[in-house]
């Protein structure tokens, strides 16, 4: 069974129906100035000292002591590196703004993970509406908070609450703006309503590499704040937003995230946000984590948040087609061409019906855009997402076995994609075992784990 993608929305148990978070404070021991033979740390010695042993150590013992002493110094230096936290703090009015970044380029040791948590956990909040709960994080000192659109979609103007800390008071948050296409939303609280704000720093998600260590902080399944760790499992993934359009450059992680983690930060080992946890893949209806999670990249946050925080609308480029992949055919087959859309105005033609293996499609197959070869629908979506409305692109198509180039002026993406009425809108191959509505063989990634939210009609990714 193909994995199912689910948004990390929770209508789980109440906060009183969970086990408390157990947090043992670390202890720091100062190493002795010089090790001695009878110290407890030398219990690994397997032979006892003879009664008539000389009082002066042998040259070999002295060399061993020097090596041990150097080792203690090196370990102490490493401990300082992985646990060091650089904190800047200033007071604004009656509250404190604290900017925390973990120093150095620490690895994923327990000390490093704890250092990241200590530097950032106060910047992560619970987000609650009348239909469920998710997670958010402090964006700046003015009280802006970033979360997922699907966490707050449908919420009333005074229906959103955020909570700082597991035992903090709920604070009313105002919805400043949303962008369904990137599944991001911005809330705002009165900074005077809380004692301290800890804005989180954004990383450059284009520099994130596979196998980089990361941690996720959030409020899964109605529990208190929960921290998990893992690695970046892959970059450049694509998921679908609730309006059926593609979100690209998505980060995949194996850090355990579950319903309720939606909107929470995925952090690197310097305490910087590399992504916003949004969806997970599951193998069935259980909805639990199987180690495949997806986060909207931080560079998308940088592009979208400044606009929606001011109540503006993010303009996304739009081609106006549905696409599919035909077996044995190079390129991307054009399915539905939206009437009056950019592709329709350029004269692009759809492939109708089924195309058997080896048969020439009866419509257009996109083989390149602006000279760049494309072979999967994701390739087309990523190129279009990199443009702005009004940009003119050259689309090379194969039509009846002949190559043609179409000039397309991209439009502005509508709120939702076109819906079909009970008919398959994606070109298919009869022998192709994949779901004709989803050429990648994946189930619907847009269904929030909230029984009050209907499952949107599944359609292929749209550019």
Uncertain spans, ≥5 residues at pLDDT below 50? 9-55, 63-94, 419-461
Which structural class should the secondary elements be placed in? Answer: alpha+beta
Beta-strand content: 25-35%
- Walk across the major sheet and give the strand order: 8-7-4-5-6-10-9
- CATH topology grouping of the largest domain: Thrombin, subunit H
Report the principal-axis shape: elongated
Q: Assign a percent range to the helix content.
A: 10-25%
What is the annotated CATH architecture of the largest domain? Beta Barrel
Number of domains: 2
| Number of β-strand runs | 25
Would you tell me the overall average pLDDT?
Answer: 75
Multimeric organization: single chain
SSE inventory with pairings:
Elements lengths: L3 E4 L51 H25 L1 E8 L2 E8 L7 H11 L3 E6 L2 E7 L5 E4 L1 H4 L8 E4 L5 E3 L1 E6 L4 E5 L7 E2 L15 E6 L7 E15 L5 E8 L11 E3 L5 E10 L10 E5 H11 L8 E2 L2 E4 L7 E6 L4 H5 L17 E6 L2 E2 L3 H9 L6 E8 L2 E8 L1 E2 L51
Parallel strand pairs: 3-11
Antiparallel strand pairs: 1-16, 2-3, 4-5, 4-7, 5-6, 6-10, 7-8, 9-10, 12-13, 12-15, 13-14, 14-17, 15-16, 16-17, 18-25, 19-20, 20-21, 21-22, 21-23, 23-24
Keywords:
Thrombin, subunit H; alpha+beta; 2 domains; 31% strand; six-stranded antiparallel barrel; disordered C terminus; Pdz3 Domain; 463 residues; single chain; seven-stranded antiparallel beta sheet
Written account of the structure:
The chain is built from six helices and 25 strands. The chain is elongated and about 65 Å long. Strands 8-7-4-5-6-10-9 form a seven-stranded antiparallel beta sheet. A six-stranded antiparallel β-barrel has the order 12-13-14-17-16-15. Strands 19, 20, 21, 22, 23 and 24 form a six-stranded antiparallel beta sheet that branches. The chain has 463 residues and is α+β, with helices and mostly antiparallel strands. 46% of the residues are buried. Helices cover 14% and strands 31% of the residues. The C terminus is likely disordered. The two termini are 27 Å apart.
